[in-house]
Amino acid sequence: MRVVLLMVTLLASAAFAADAKTKTTMRTALHSTLWLQPYLVSPAAFRDPANAPAIKGHLEVLANLEHHFATREKADAATRAIAGMLGAQVRRSLTDFNAGDPEPARARLRSLTSVCFACHSRDAVATDFDDTEKAVEALRLPPLRQAELYASTRQFDRAIAVWKDALARPAKTDAEWFEQTAALRQYLAVLVRVKDDKAGTAAAITEQAQRDGVPVFFQHLLDAWFTEVRVWNEDAFDARAATPLVLFKKGAALIADADLERQVVADERRFISMLRATAYLSAALERAPDATWRGEALFFLGVASAATQDPLLWNLDALFLETCVREQPHTRIARRCVTRLSERTWLRWTGSGGTDIPPEELRTLAWLRSLAAP
């Protein structure tokens, strides 16, 4: 779940000489992003009126990034575009939150901050997260929410320990199985994308498959994912030793092998492969942010993210595709990105009652099409 230069941590490392004001602004923004995490994983805390003033204050800090980068002479067009996208998403969240509709705001913000943290998912834990344990205790989060919070703040070993224990507990209802399935996806994402751990991934899937009472839909997924792990285990590819270009090509090859570009509806059976693809593509962009194939990498990240994103999160794939258009205006790759985004938007807003796309979404699509046009 990430794309380099998409969110706060990305802007902090943008390709221009950061002045003192920029560094201070980014530090404040990162603090706000971190502060929001416990409330984003707790629906009750996010809805609590007592927390509303602080939540609004931190969202206003993040929304201000757009204004800051718009006034910095050394900020390049891509950085300004990304800051603009972040600001727009945060303002939409503020609008929903102020209108008394917190859940859409929370979903969108969870997507935004998950991308932000994932940009540096291989970094060591920073001192910014020293107070996370206190937040867990204060909010009395259930185990799966604890694991999500630890993962969102890059404390992956803690998250893995909590997931391993919580996912061994019996699920008594369909709702609990669904919640555990979503948690397993997060657990596997850390094992694949962060740890690059073939054996650990296989063990986690096997442990789930051997549980009593596994629903049929879950068992089918586990079988498909275990097959994917076997293929991965036979692959001698070494991501840590690969050059950015080789990483990009490998990620693109995995997507081509899954034939995902021609599928508007994501094939969850290829979940493990797509986790690998997004990991390789993200690492490639992180190591070579100015590569000539950057636009293609963003496109492929958008395609693959549809198969890897948490179903409870906002449309994370749309963020990647929109970034592609904003960064590569009036190019062929921008037109590929906006076409894919249009297909996914129609799918997202189509149900048994037909297609009902909100006017705001249609306006955004129209603007992006004009930005991508020759």
From TrEMBL:
* Entry keyword set: Signal
Its signal peptide is: 1-17
**What is the protein's given name?**
Cytochrome c domain-containing protein
